[in-house]
Amino acid sequence: MADTTPTTITGPAVTVDGKVLRAWLDQPAGTYDNPSDETETFTLAEGLGIPHLDVDSTNAVTSMLDDVLRTLREDDEQDAFTIADDVESVDIIRAYDGEGSGCDGVHVYVDLANGVRLASLHLDRDALVHGNTDPVEVVVATVAAVATEANALVAKYQAAIAG
After folding, report:
1. Residues in Cβ contact with 124 at an 8 Å cutoff, skipping those fewer than 6 apart
2. What is the dihedral of CA 90, 96, 102, 104, to 10 degrees?
3. Domain extents for the chain?
4. What whole-number distance in Å separates Cα of residue 124 and Cα of residue 112?
5. pTM to 2 decimals?
6. pLDDT digits (tens, 9 = 90+) for 4-20
7. Residue 14 CA: distances (Å) to CA of 113, 122, 143
């Protein structure tokens, strides 16, 4: 059962720094031997497949967003996507259309330290991508859209408990 103690968050629940996120994606992530037997380095973005992202596919965009958010959560040293102390996690749930044709958007959810889970209404591809066509910029826009939605959810929750 959720703790009924209100959670007070001063400032944003989630912050995203697009410049830092781009640099984080561009950092070396590993090496491989090319056909000439030379060792080459690949970036985190390349390791995640971002350069090959089909930006017109909602399924591909939301799958990539899921992967990027997971990778951000696993990297304790990144400063691109940070959450407030009273927020346990921010994530997405991919939403399916019921027709069997794939994912048609996401729901953002925020788990607060007091055990309360907040969830958004459906966000479609356009609400996530904001007209971007470059794969890296699509990733930055989708992560920023998650943060914006998470901050709105927390603000509404805090207004509701304040009376």
Report:
1. 58, 104, 105
2. -70
3. 55-162
4. 24
5. 0.89
6. 566 667 779 999 999 99
7. 14, 19, 10
